[in-house]
């Protein structure tokens, strides 16, 4: 069985595990950097290896539009195309169709939308998305789901959640069919695992129902938790994560989609989440914002102008181990590409190392204290007017 | 003596040498990538080392405006500021003042101009430029010179050339004074060498005169050749380079400023040039253009869409050794930062490796044939309608 999940140790709901895929093992909890267009923005696959990134994400919607999933298949699949030999997960485009594309029309068959690139009309069905993700050839592929705004009412949330469950069935049927036909149009590479996406908004009843119906639909290698961190208040997120922890199979990895920020990762791990992804570290890196162990820092701040200290004294990334805040600020304020690259490296390294530390804390039976102290330090730094992150 | 130049072998006017500086040796002929604002655009110092780049360039004008040469001095000088421990050369800002800045007014004392960043009025004198370059702390610093358009008439060229020679005297006096005072305002780091810049446009008489007067003005560790490749026809460039080869001291390195392209480098080496710099490889990298051994390639071309071959089959750079033309084209057409980074790496690697090959050919006594064959291959590839660089 090419997909396996082994839980080594728990701390309350938190788990230290190993998720095995055809392209290697992922030690969980783990953060997956996002390579939307088959490139983690500004970062090289060699950098990812050097930072000990284990699994990355790519976007079916974006790659379908550009350069085209058929082309990627033709060139040997995503791993070969982008020069990354580790595990990859592709999302299904559900989120992008509902957030980026214009003029969408949803019916039971699928979603009609206009491409955000050229306005051309497209129609995504669960079956088409499976074929796209098969062509891309990631290790883990997500089902096509119906995504709705974060604070949708019960009726809209139920409608979308139930449609997502029906679409899961169609995804699975197509996934099995593609696997069995294995003809010339199928991807020439290894086995894939289909993850369902559990929806239900912030409605506890819907979430429990979606979780149990999804789990009843088959034995999946892992589960996606969708529709969170989309604008709802944090306490709602945490409450729903606790519901998910109770209602999803414990022996499978849970992937909290599109999250996120350091504090969200720790709160997620506390509530039984194993995998995370988010564009935040690279997007922030391109705008001059940095995660540090003492809080978030705007690198353009005038106080950093002559500051010879590293950005984060507790960080061993390629930025902090070699360059000063002053140099980083100079690069960022001068729009030098090296600046956004170093900052993207730092932010990705920060989240990856954070999850590595969380894992070590779970294994060493000190997770509760570690996570409490970590968050205290993080918030104290951000709150301070003369932050230790900017005046060494 | 911290600056030394040893010629190991010659082939006609071409020389294979070693230029020793306080931060290490430079094997010549050599191409110096340009780090305008203390960063070779999109490239990390570690990348430079990996590509065996030996010496880089930075710009006094740009760094004076941003982040300020005083700040760089305060932070330990350019080497430490930008994390590059190899040799550095700074140009004097002469070229920038006359090409980028607005509303300049030249008199015998110096040049008044408006900053291209904020329009503020600035006044550069030879003395101020020496203090700027002293603060930056590069190994080699260029004199402040009067730069004029490429095809200026004899009167304008003579005026600028003679002024540059007078300014050389003032640069040297200030350079010596700064060295002797060595007070708190002086740079805290090692010895520097001042290179004159020989001007004279495309006027043979002026060039000979400038060269002999410059050489008579003192024993410099090397000589800059300015005012070429600024719009004049190639045969004029080559003719003037031959004049420079005859009239400059043979036992010192010659640095042809702002050049450039592969063919120009080879033609320069043939005429006794040892050092080159140009923004072309990184600038082209950011616009999707590549040097290859078979000619220049526009990476956005539709023919590359499904091309699984490396950009240049004869190249061992971080791009060509790992990625396909199809992936590179996808990155570049999608405005992915990784695309322009990989292309910048490739183009810099290409010129650096080209000069390494030229050096090996001189040492092995096969330079004439090597350079002829290299140029034939380069031009044939570019000329071909179904170029081997695009159809593997």
Major interchain interface with per-chain residue totals: A-B, 40 and 39 residues
Oligomer: homodimer
Name the beta content range of chain A. 15-25%
Structural class of chain A: alpha/beta
Low-confidence stretches of chain A: 383-392
Shape of chain A: globular
Total helical segments of chain A: 14
* Average pLDDT figure of chain A: 93
Report on the biggest sheet of chain A.
5 strands, parallel
Percent range of helical residues of chain A: 40-55%
Give the distance, in angstroms, between the N- and C-terminal Cα atoms of chain A. 51 Å
Radius of gyration of chain A: 21 Å
Total strand count of chain A, please?
A: 17
Written overview of the protein:
2 copies of one chain form a homodimer. Chain A has 392 residues and is an alpha/beta fold. Chain A has helices at 45-50, 60-65, 69-74, 78-82, 94-99, 126-136, 154-181, 204-216, 234-247, 262-270, 280-287, 325-333, 337-363, 367-383; strands spanning 4-11, 14-21, 24-28, 30-33, 56-59, 88-91, 102-106, 111-114, 121-124, 140-142, 193-195, 197-198, 223-225, 254-256, 275-278, 289-290, 297-298. In chain A, strand 8 (111-114) and strand 9 form a beta hairpin. In chain A, helix 7 runs parallel beside helix 8, helix 8 (204-216) runs parallel beside helix 9 and helix 11 packs antiparallel against helix 13 (337-363). The relative contact order of chain A is 0.13. Residues 383-392 of chain A have low confidence and may be disordered. The interface between A and B is large, with 40 and 39 residues.
